[in-house]
Design a protein that fits this description.
The chain is an all-alpha fold. It has helices at 3-22, 27-33, 38-45, 53-62, 74-102. The protein folds into 2 domains: 3-70, 434 Repressor (Amino-terminal Domain), CATH 1.10.260.40; 73-108. It contains 5 helices and no strands.
Length: 108
């Protein structure tokens, strides 16, 4: 197994653990819902066992997360921050225009 494969497995495993916790499920409860053993799920969550897309889709359904939740979302996070900055810039422009109107528009 390639080092990159295990790194990805660990990342997905951590996301599975986070989603399970957020859903209020124990490892045993999720394992039962998936018809597998708790130790088998533990291996997946620790990145020591591969998971297929079908299993990941089942987990996503059980913990009420979209499938893309389990993958890198750096691009999405950056886009969200940019949108927030744009919104803040619009608010600052409005405040600046209001302040200029109140002050008579004379900057000198």
């Amino acid at each position: 197994m390639k080092k990159r494969d295990t790194k990805l497995q660990r990342k997905i495993g951590r996301k599975i653990r986070e989603a399970r916790s957020e859903a209020g499920l124990s490892q045993q409860a999720l394992a039962r819902a998936l018809k597998m053993t708790g130790s088998g799920l533990g291996y997946i969550e620790s990145g020591r066992r591969r998971i297929d897309l079908f299993m990941l889709e089942n987990i996503a359904d059980i913990v009420c997360k979209p499938l893309d939740y389990f993958f890198e979302q750096k691009k999405f996070a950056i886009e969200s921050k940019l949108l927030e900055l744009e919104r803040q810039m619009k608010e600052l422009r409005k405040l600046l225009m209001t302040s200029r109107k109140l002050g008579g528009g004379d900057d000198s």
